[in-house]
Structures are given as C-alpha cells and as structure tokens.
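Weekend entry, working from home. Most of the wet-lab plans are on hold until the incubator is repaired, so I used the time to fold the two sequences that have been sitting in the queue since the last round of cloning. Logging both here for the record. First:
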Amino acid sequence: MKKLLNVLYVTTPNSYLSLDGETVLVKRDDDVAMRLPLHNLENIICFGYNGASPALMGACAERNIGLCFFSPSGRFWARITGKVNGNVLLRKKQYLLSEDQAHSVQLARWFLTGKIYNCRKVIERALRDHAMIVDVPSLTAVSQGLRGGLKSLSGCTSLTDLMGFEGSSAKQYFSVLDSLVLQQKSDFFFKERSRRPPLDNFNALLSFLYTVLTNEVVSALEGVGLDPCVGFLHQDRPGRPSLALDLMEELRPVFADRFALSIVNRRQISGKGFTLKESGGIIMDDETRKKVITLWQERKKEEIVHPFLKERIEFGLIPHVQALLLARYLRGDLDAYPPFFWN
C-alpha cells in the first residue's frame, strides 16, 4: 500500500477496502493494515480481487473520489463514479489541448526527452557494468549522439519534425542494441527493429513486451480518467491508443528493452521457445510467454525511488504515477509534465 499525491495505491491482492465513518480502512486477513481520512484522498487505486464495501463505494461516489479496480497484473476492470464526474472536465481539456499545435509539440518534447534519456541510460548501464566485453567505442559514440539529440529537441517546432527526430534517435539506439546481448547470441541476435511480423527471436520478444506495456499504460490512463486514444505526439487513428503510445515512449527503454536484455542475458528464457513460421515471422510458444509474464510480474514488485516524487514505490506503479502526473499537468495543477528519468 502506498499513498502518493493524495492517491492511495493498494497493491496487496488480498486487501479489502471498507468505510469507518470518514475513514477508509485497508484490511488484510481481517486485520486493519492502514487507515486514511477520506478527505485526504482524490483517488483510490486497488489491485486485487477482494474489492471494497458498498458503503465505501457510495462515499467515494458522493465525494467525487475516484475508486478504480485493476487485476493484480494491472488490467483495468472498472471505475466507480458519482453523479458529477470531474473526469469529464479533464477529458475535455485533453481533447482541447490535443488540437492545439503548440501544446502538442511541448508535450511531445517531454515524452521524447524521457525516451532519449532512458535510451542513453540503458547504454550507459552496459558500459558501466560490462565494459570489458561490450563494444565501448560504438556504445560511447551512440550515447554521445543521443546526448546531443537531447539538446536539439528544443529546436523541433512541429510534430513532423519531432517524429523525424524520434525515428533517427531510435535508429541510433537500435544500431547498438545487439552488442548489449551478451549471452545466447546465436538465438537472440538483433540486426534491426522488425515488426508485423518480427523476423528474429529478440524482435519477437520486444514486440510481445511492447504489447504488454501498451495494455498496462492504457489501464493507467483509464485509471486517472484520461482517454488513451487521444494523443499529442501520435495522432488520432481509429483503434490506436495514441496517448498510451505517447506515454510509452519514455517507459519503453526501461520497461521493455532493458527487461528483454536482462532475461536473455540471465538465460531465463531460451531460443527453444521461439518458432519460425512459414511466413518468415517468429512467434513465442505458450510456455515461454507464461515465463516472460511471470518474470514481468516479479519485476513490477521491485522497488525504485521515483525521480520526481522522491518516494520509494513498486516498479509496476510507474505507469500509474506518470499517468497521474500527466493528468495533473493537463488540469493545470503542474506547470510542466515531468517525464520518468531512470536512475
């Protein structure tokens, strides 16, 4: 359980929420694990199956306190709302700003700043931890190139410029990703990013992780009342969660790329779990997919100090915290959106 920015995150799956006067109780095995006054909260985010009492649901609806339910793995289930829902105003503001070129460009810059910073961190970590076995000159050159790119972001004045900049930065980053694969090289080599279909095992792993991360970011955005389909960097397209793709930019290097490298280099999965189809694409078998999901859930339980909040939180809460910070910026509670910078 964690309280951040007037939001209570209940991450213990067997927790039950109830009401005692003007206080929310978090119970675990009939014992009260936490008490918090309702007037101190604006959202309650619950990951688990036990749920909440009708009395608490009614109190949250009456006071316009968001009460959201997710599965333990982070899949969005439902949100309890009252007669007047502040999320309507938030979404109206989101739609308004998404049509404003200047605001869209500024938000897109922040998302890409987080992405490029975290791409550099993935490379810098490899240089720090494996300097004796990686291609130091190539990695250093790309790291310096990405660093220079961060300074160039301010010069991009249109979404077209930013998308072109993102593409060139990604190409630099992916050009050295193969040198970060230190084990099982014959099974998990990486030449270039390939999708629909992925043409090698590592690309298949990345595509799967990007899909998992997309679903988690969509759930996080829904949890704070934002529309996952209306973005700023990625333009609207039927069926595409554009805002989720925006927010994923800064999270992808840490949540997916670094995680993929880790489980390959630790030999937690093997090439035997991947199959070449007649179409030339690669797919994972069910057993490997289950193994990856299990390792993903374990990773989410690890703790990290959030760089903006300076609070220790579970890794899996980062998309929810970033969605909350984005909502606060759009509402005008923050002067700027703070991207997630991995340290």
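Second, folded right after the first finished:
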Amino acid sequence: MITPQTKMVTAEDVHVAFSGVQVLKGVSFEVERGEVMCMIGPSGSGKTTLLRCINHLVKVDSGRLMVDGELVGYEERNGMLYELTERQIARNCATIGMVFQSFNLFPHLTALGNVVLAPIRVLGVEKSQALANGMELLNRVGLGSKCDAYPRELSGGQQQRVAIARALAMDPKLMLFDEPTSALDPELVGDVLDVMRDLAASGMTMLVATHEMGFAREVGDQLMFLDNGQVVEAGVPRTVIDCPQHDRTRAFLSKVL
C-alpha cells in the first residue's frame, strides 16, 4: 500500500548474476522522495547493472526492488513473485526516466522529434500538446534554439541535454543517470551537470552513477560506494568523501580526487 511515507526506491538484498558470475551481491538501500543518491565505484562494480535493474532492463535473480511502493517488473501472489507481461512492465516503468552514457538519440529525428516521440506513442499525448511540452523542456535544458537540429549537428553535451529532456517528457517520478558525463569532452561536462543541479533543486528524485565528485558532494543527499557488486560504504557525501571509513573506499578516492 502506497502511503505518503513510502520510499521512492527500496532495494532489498538484490542479487544478479551473468553467466554464473555474481555482479550484484546482496545490495540494499533506500532513497526518499526528492533525494539525490549518488553512486561511485570502479568500472565493473555493479553501478550500471543496479540502475538497469531499477527499470527492469536487467532482471534480478533474488531480492526485491520497489519504486514508489510497487515491485518493479513483478507482482506478488501467495508469497511468490511472477514477472509482469511486457505491456505491464512498460506501464510499470513508464515513470522511471533513464539517461545513459551514450546519448541513444534517434539520428533521423530532430531534437524536438526525439523529445516528443514517446509521449505521443506511449502516453497518447496529442501532437500539438507534446510539441508545446517538448519546446518547454528544450528551453529548460537551454536548447530551445536547437529544436530543429539533428543529433549529428549537436555537440555531445547538447545531445545529452536532449536525452535528459526526452526522459523528462514522460513526466517521471524518478530519474536514473548512468555516468551521463563520462562520454563528454571536459569542457562540455558543466552544462549537463547544471541541468542536473536544476533538476535536483526542483525536487526530482535521482539516482546518479558518477565520477564527478564535486557534483556528488554538492548535490547528493546520499553517497554509496560500490565495489565488486557490494555496497562497501554509504552515508552523507561530504563525510564519505572527506573521511572514508573503509580501506577500499580510501584507495578508490585517492585515485579519483
């Protein structure tokens, strides 16, 4: 039952294995509504897999993942979990936005075309309303003047901001970011982080896998360090970054700061 106290995200002892290799080994955490949870850790630590589990792009082998009080991708009957149909999963995850490392824009569509496609096809929004909403979102990310540009005509940072606008067009309750600046030239990172700061300030609940420690320290409400598929250390970002308690956390931070 959903109540005003329901956590936006709850992970309980989540395990995932690929070809017998354990990728997530009992991950548990909670994210309150309006919080920003930043996840740090080396490549292969499980950050991307965890994010993809939250919108059911990857299925969990055991444990539970809930968003806004509802199981992701499953329903429970008589104490057993049963996977939903594809249509039910699409509806279940429609309010979870995700921004990937690579921008994944449709090359044959303009910036505005990319933003309005899903609201029209998935949500059934009238085209005129979707176009108006899309322009508002492109203006929000500073790209209103690029509405008719194709992805090939945009910089990496601009493409990523279009990808954020596209995710926001579905009116999500939760936004997932998988190292959204890792593919960008250093001078383009700031514009994307500024959009994410504005989103956080607006009250959007966000889970962000990132190597941008300044962003994590400034914007994050929680920081979680993953290594080898496990949560090694978690807490207030400034505390974890400045005073890590675990040797593995200290070793990682000494290389990235």
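Plan for Monday: verify the second prediction. The mean pLDDT is 95.
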